[in-house]
Design goal:
The protein is an alpha/beta fold. The protein is 41% helix and 13% strand. It has helices at 2-15, 65-68, 83-95, 112-125, 157-165, 187-194, 216-225, 315-318, 320-328, 345-361, 363-366, 380-390, 407-433, 447-471, 473-484, 492-512, 515-519, 534-558; strands spanning 40-42, 49-54, 73-76, 79-82, 98-102, 133-135, 143-149, 172-179, 199-200, 205-208, 254-257, 286-290, 300-305, 331-337, 373-377. The strands form four sheets. Strands 2, 5, 7, 8, 9 and 10 form a six-stranded parallel beta sheet that branches. Strand 8 (172-179), helix 6 (187-194) and strand 9 form a beta-alpha-beta unit. It starts with a helix and ends in a 6-residue tail after the last helix. The relative contact order is 0.08.
Length: 564
């Protein structure tokens, strides 16, 4: 009787062992093992999701459905895949991420019985097979989706080797498991034991090998239900969409860069990502706003800093969901995407300080009291909040001399500096020429030079102010759109026609009002036609302002944003 029971248990355990497929299954039953892979490091794409899976193909015929229904392979559009590999690729197609196959230096046999025996021997001996593939930059990942077959009510030993090679502390591990009847067994608990610092999800995907090939709908639904995605959106618009240049929209979700390009305060020089960092050198810190629902009482504002050990930002766990919940409770919520390694904590705290300053400056628009602003952080985000509060009296303004001097930045700096000189010229000349308000000042002589200075400052100041207006035209139009609540895209053709007419009339007005004569001192006196209707005079100068503003807008728009 004992012999019969033993044989029955052995048969059950054998049937529960799914040998999961690889990317290059054998083409005939004569193959004895997989080709020995060369030790390599698989490349990554900078995603925050790693989909790692272990796969060994069984050597079976793929002629007919019955031939593969009981084996651990799936046929997808004529391509033979292992069950776990098939599931891993479905997951990647659904949420993105880096796909990583766990491979060993010594190949596994493809024959089912031989594979079963080797798996049992490795488990009994506690073998840790040497891996041939290695994750290039494990620090960059926030989520690790780990796929494997259930062998002898346990993970395959190469998965042990994989988990013991890396430290996934502060990351989220989500298993997906194929099996021949044993379910997940206690493998999820084993992962928690091997990675005590990680958050091991309780939402593992567990699939029977007999149903894996027809489980596409279930796999996609499960992956979508995880609520994670490989790509993170970024603000649009570059320098026209920063906390300094964009108009605030307190009623809709909004993403704004914290600093203008090339003007981010930093002491760390970061030019090349050697694979050890989550963000590339061109990353710009930004803020995402989640508004309180329309009609709800606004109680205050909260800035949220997700954690991630300064190696990544766990926005999808500790950022967006928290902001959505807080906004539903009546708090204007902001998620900060701050700088990570190789930047220092102090530099990341500057991003947070900048964000707080922005929210405080626009407190009235957000419907809050400037004193009702809270900062919260998780893990590294909490450290960042403490760093900012510890240095609350420091500066958060970038140095003018820092950053790259692009043609665009040079243009803006020149216009602003020249405009400042014109304003100073107007003030000084106005004081000297005044014979009423400042008649008590002991100023004598120099009135000829002062008159010339006043005329130059007036006309050049008018043109430079129009240029400056054009440089920030997007911000102006954003405010107009918000106030009028108009669907401006409907009137795009009319706007273009109006622009052409305005530029044409502006050129005429420049000649009619002799603007160039006064700009270049071809005359030292300004002559007004007092017989001209005042409305025509104002219309002419409005058209000139529009002409110069259009020149400033298109010049600023077409300057390159970075150096070559």
């Amino acid at each position: 009787m004992k012999t019969i029971v033993s044989l029955f248990l052995a048969l059950t355990m054998t049937l529960s062992l799914p040998a999961c497929g690889g990317t290059n299954p054998p083409k005939s039953s004569q193959s004895a093992s997989t080709p020995s892979p060369s030790p390599i490091q698989q490349e990554t794409t900078g995603s925050n999701i790693l989909i790692a899976y272990f796969s060994v193909p069984e050597d079976v015929s793929t002629d007919g459905v019955d031939a593969v229904s009981g084996a651990s392979i799936a046929v997808d559009d004529g391509e033979v895949l292992g069950n776990t590999e098939y599931v891993a690729k479905l997951i990647q197609q659904t949420i993105g991420g880096d796909l990583f196959r766990i491979e060993t230096v010594d190949p596994y046999p493809l024959d089912h019985d031989s594979l079963v025996d080797q798996a049992a021997e490795e488990k009994e001996a506690g073998t840790r097979p040497e891996l041939a593939t290695h994750v290039e930059n494990s620090e960059q990942y926030e989520f690790v989706l780990l796929g494997y077959p259930n062998w002898w009510a346990d993970m395959p030993m190469p998965v042990y080797s994989f988990l013991e090679e890396y430290n996934f502390g502060a990351k989220t591990i989500i298993p997906f498991i194929t099996h021949g009847g044993s379910g997940a067994s206690r493998t999820v608990d084993t992962i928690s034991r091997l990675q005590p610092g990680a958050s091991v999800g309780d939402n593992a995907l567990v699939l029977s090998r007999n149903k894996a090939a027809s489980s596409a709908e279930d796999v996609v639904s499960w992956a979508q239900g995880l609520g994670i995605a490989a790509e993170t959106s970024r603000p649009e618009g570059g320098d026209s969409n920063t906390v300094l240049t964009a108009s605030v929209d307190p009623h809709g979700k909004q993403m704004l860069y914290l600093w203008e390009e090339g003007n981010v305060p930093a002491v760390t020089k970061y030019t090349v990502n050697n694979g050890n960092y989550f963000d590339d050198p061109d990353f710009q810190p930004y803020l995402t706003f989640f508004p309180v629902p329309e009609g709800a009482e606004i109680k205050g504002a909260v800035l949220i800093c997700a954690g991630g050990a300064f190696q990544f930002r766990s926005d999808q766990n500790e950022g967006t969901p928290v902001a959505e919940d807080l906004s539903a409770l009546g708090y204007q919520s902001f998620v900060l995407d701050y700088r990570l390694r190789p930047y220092t904590q102090e530099e990341g705290a500057l991003d947070l300080a900048r964000a707080v300053r922005f929210v405080r400056a626009h407190a009235e628009e957000y419907g809050i009291d400037e004193k009702d602003i809270a900062v919260m952080g998780f893990s590294a985000g909490g450290i960042l909040a403490g760093e900012m509060l510890r240095n609350f009296d420091g500066t958060v303004s970038p140095s003018l001399a820092k950053g790259k001097w692009t043609a665009r930045r040079l243009f803006r700096t020149f216009v602003n500096a020249a405009l400042l000189l014109c304003m100073l010229g107007l003030m000084v000349s106005g004081v000297i020429l005044s014979r009423h308000v400042f008649d008590f000042l002991p100023i004598k002589g120099g009135r000829g030079f002062t008159r010339t200075l006043h005329m130059l400052s007036s006309y050049w100041g008018f043109c430079l102010m129009s240029l400056h207006l054009g440089m920030h035209w997007n911000m102006v139009m954003g405010t107009v759109k918000k106030l009028t609540k108009s669907k401006w895209q409907v009137f795009a053709p009319l706007r273009q026609l109006f622009l052409i007419i305005m530029i044409g009339y502006g050129l005429y007005a420049v000649i009619h009002q002799k603007i160039l004569t006064y700009l270049f001192l071809r005359s030292h006196f300004v002559f007004f036609n007092f017989g001209e209707d005042i409305l025509i005079f104002l219309f002419d100068y409005t058209a000139i302002m529009g002409l110069v503003a259009a020149a400033g807008y298109y010049a600023d728009k077409h300057f390159p944003r970075s150096t070559a």
